[in-house]
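Dear colleague,

Following up on Tuesday's group meeting, I ran the structure prediction for the two-component complex that the binding team flagged. I've pasted the input sequences exactly as they went in, so you can double-check that nothing got truncated or mislabelled along the way. The structure tokens for the whole assembly follow below. Feel free to forward this to whoever is handling the docking comparison.

Inputs:
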Amino acid sequence: MTAPISNVFLALQANDETRPIVEAILADNAHAQVDEQPGMVRVFAPGTMSLNRHTVEELIGRKFDLQEIHINIISLSGHVDEGDDTLTLTWNN
Amino acid sequence: MQMDLRTVSIKPQRQTFGHIARRLGADKPASRYQEGTLDMQSMANQHYRPLWDPEHEYFDARRTAIVMTDWYSFKDPRQYYYGSYVMARARQQDAAESTFDFVETRRLVELAPPHLVATAKRLLVPLRHVAWGASMNNDFIAAYGFGAALTQPALLHAMDQLGIAQFITRAALLLGGPEDLDEAKQAWLEDADWQPLRRLVEDLFVEKDWFELLVAQDLVIDGLLYPLIYQTIIDDRIAADGGSAISMMTQFQTEWFGETGKWVDAQIKIAVGESHANRDLIANWVAKWKARAVASLVPLAKIGAGDDAPAVLDEVVSQFERRVAKLGVGA
């Protein structure tokens, strides 16, 4: 019997800056889902989920530094693997 | 007594303006660029026709030979509206400011070989008049163009060119003094080396088709001038010979050309993709203005690259041809 896979999530403030970030996560992670809450948007996915710099850059038409998301992050869950190009959240279960 | 706190989620009735929602297909949140651009210009019920041009409305799509079914298909890949544009340029201004400071306080110009400083003065300073001309031409596109999606970035482009003229002036003051500005103006007005380029820039002032102007100025002239002067002569040759102080002072131009090139390319691609008629028009314009632009750059290449001038210019031209071919303009 397999245990259900826990979700990783990223909660961001809902604003003009985070909209392309959420879109990028949804585009790159077919299994990710969005939960829109008042003033906040929570993207979650079972097991793992990643955010790619290139996808965001294509959407916003300028250079994007992954560190920019920290201004808008409310909370997250999962082990964080953060590089210049990708931010990945995973559970090792 | 017991108090229950709970969150009530209130769904907004609509996510954006009706005209944006009709364009984007659904009522979903629109970016500020989209809200500040799409359908901004008056399309109908305009005032009486201008006395100076009774054939046309104030906003009239027939001021260019290019035909589009939707003038708002011209998207700016940088998504600039006033706010994002100003913030981006302010950051670049700060960076340029500190570079100029660096060059000035460490007296880097005095450390550069004098013959390179002389070349830079001769080649760079008259270009402030070219930048001003380019600014005028983009003002024209912004004034007579059709659809805010294209006229808005054209006006930003015009402001950028004014900024470039100012950066060149600052560089001239560091390389020499105010008298160099006067000398450069004399060279621009009288020196035989500058007359072909001056004639080209001034001929464009009387072009009436604003899209042709976009092709001639922003694609062809800038597309040859910037790679030649800034990327090849200043950033490669002069910097390699010990004049990196000079290329530090022109870093905005190099960076700007890379950024705005994306915008220009996108506009040309969209117009070319619309119809064969557009493609043929643009291909003709590119060929027509390229011949004149290349000829007018020959003397400048000689000033900057001496005996290597033909090879250097050939390389710049073939680079430009590759760029244009990628845009779908059959040469």
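The first helix of chain B runs from residue 18 to 24.

Cheers,
M.
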